[in-house]
Each structure stands twice: as structure tokens, then as C-alpha cells.
Amino acid sequence: MNPSPIEISRDELLEEFLKVVADAEALLHATAEHGGEELAAMRAGMHETLTAAKARCGAARDGVVLKGRAAADATDSYVRENPWSAVGVAAGLGLLIGLLGRRR
Asked: Is 0.90 topped by the overall pTM?
């Protein structure tokens, strides 16, 4: 099953954000040898911001993983408790997908 446009956008946004963070870290390391108090203060502030952003991304990713596991566990429990209902739903979805695919 293909991800919805919302999920694609969220995944792409997270991927792009992580690229920006990586680029910013590379910029920090590249300018580390250059002097000046203002530049050092800017680097320190940028470093703090990047650290916080990475932590938030990690927490968001962990939350998504936990929700996915909970959904998988709930689905597994339902299928084990109602195997024939699950077979019926799967057959119905297969029929619907087959009919939709045939129209194209």
C-alpha cells in the first residue's frame, strides 16, 4: 500500500530537515578555525539550536515508531481473536483493489 501524500510530505520534510542539520554541522566544523568573538558566539548558538533540533527529531521518530508498534500489536491481537473476520476483510480489500485496478 502506498503512503498517503501527507505521510510522504512528512517523511520528505523530515529528510530535508536532517539534510539541513547535517549541512549546518558541516558549516560549523568548517568555520571552527576562523576567529572572532562574534563568529564564535554565533557558532555556539547554532550548535545549541542544532543539538535541540536533532533531539526533537529523534523524539518524534521514536514516537512514530512506538505508535507503529502499538498499531501492529493491536492488529495482531485482533487477527488472533477474530481470524475469520480478518480473512473476510482481507478478501474484501483484495476484491476492491482488483476492481479498482481493472478500471485503469
From this structure: no
